[in-house]
Amino acid sequence: MISIIKSGDVYAPDRLGKKDILTVNGKIIAIGDSFTLGDLSTEIIDVSGKKVCPGFIDQHVHVTGGGGQFGFSSFIPELNAHDLLAVGTTTVLGLLGTDGFVKELSTLYAKVKSLSETGVTAYMLTNFYGLPEKTICGSVAEDLIFIDKVIGCKLAISDDRSAFPTEHEILRLINQVRLGGFTSGKGGILHIHLGALESRIDVLLSIAGKYPSLISYISPTHCSRTRPLFNDCLKLAKLGGMIDISTGGTTFTEPHKAVQIALSEGVPLHNITFSSDGRGGVKREDPLTHEITYQPAPMDRNLKETASLVREKILPLEEALRLITVNPARNMKIRGKGEIKPGYDADFVILNDQLEIERVISSGRTRIVNN
């Protein structure tokens, strides 16, 4: 299938200006001032006056649903491809949360395969919050090597629901991720849920100080849960680590404000990402009745917080987009995603001047059109 995305204002995410994009069979072939093909089978998508961005990447989504902390009735339902595409997410990393027993890795794998067949590029993490780690093939390294969709491992620290892993246990998992990543060519990450306990990320800062070569394998998330935790995460980022700010979960300030703080403290923009925590269970307490409810974290906040960065003049659009495109692609070590350039996948989000989604294209096919 041949398509031309015509006359859009292209953010790759660097702003290229008004360009045409030629795609063939789901891949970007060329970017130029103007393409005209006489073949009647060529699809022309006129996006004049619109902004053409890379498809968004969400590296923390509970695709099979989170929850379960308040009994069976508190489980969050799974999502579908439309739920992701409707908010511009064309690449997703699916994972488990507190529950690795009812929500099985085999079910997560099946869901990730299903999403991949219905318009979303999907990957997954092995394990969940706990230890000893749960895997499909017997070890984290073997899961990376033999399971096509596994690109890393999940773990939780500084959370009263975690297994309270020691520094030695975390280093052993990094070793597994690293060796599995080497052999499979996937790179590998240890994606670490951060809770609100006073231990914060002491163990990660210790590892980063002793073994700087391992920093690129550490991927902490929920970094803005509390201000003290965020301050420690800024230290990790200044050492070269990535910090992920949740847009749909608990945070001490609005996520775009957290980015502003990080930048003012000297953290490089390329070390910051947004993720939604979509479909994770978020506990809410009514301030009057003190009734506790458990609601799914929304998935549409990544773009909203990115747009807030632009509207409040914290960052221009070409820089703000990096938080949901090229930065998570680099953190996840996935190729061919997060940028508009020849050889990359033809994943695009078309935005209007209000930074609202008008069209989503993944693998060269239009999936969502908003009139």
Beta content: 25-35%
| Span between termini | 24 Å
Give me the CATH fold name of the largest domain.
Answer: TIM Barrel
How does CATH name the architecture of the largest domain? Alpha-Beta Barrel
- Helix run count: 10
Instruction: Summarize model confidence as the mean pLDDT.
Output: 95
Number of strands: 18
What is the N-to-C succession of helices and strands?
EEEEEEHEHEHEHEHEHEHEEEHHHEEE
Indicate the overall shape: globular
- Which stretches of 5+ consecutive residues score pLDDT under 50? none
Provide the helix percentage: 25-40%
Radius of gyration, rounded? Answer: 20 Å
Category by helix and strand content: alpha/beta
Question: What number of structural domains do the residues give?
Answer: 2
Structural descriptors:
single chain; 371 residues; alpha/beta; Urease, subunit C, domain 1; TIM Barrel
Can you walk through the features of this model?
The protein has 371 residues and is α/β, with parallel strands linked by helices. It has 2 domains: 2-53 and 338-369, Roll (Urease, subunit C, domain 1); 55-332, Metal-dependent hydrolases (TIM Barrel, Alpha-Beta Barrel). The protein has 10 helices and 18 strands. It has helices spanning 81-85, 105-117, 140-146, 167-184, 202-210, 227-238, 255-264, 301-311, 317-320, 326-332, and strands at residues 2-11, 15-24, 27-32, 43-46, 51-54, 56-61, 89-94, 121-126, 150-157, 189-194, 218-221, 243-246, 272-275, 281-285, 292-296, 348-351, 357-362, 365-369. Strands 1, 2, 3, 4, 5, 16, 17 and 18 form an 8-stranded mixed beta sheet that branches. It has a 6-stranded parallel beta sheet with strand order 6-7-8-9-10-11, with helices on both faces. The chain has a two-stranded parallel ribbon with strand order 12-13. The radius of gyration is 20 Å and the shape is globular. The model has no long low-confidence stretch (mean pLDDT 95).
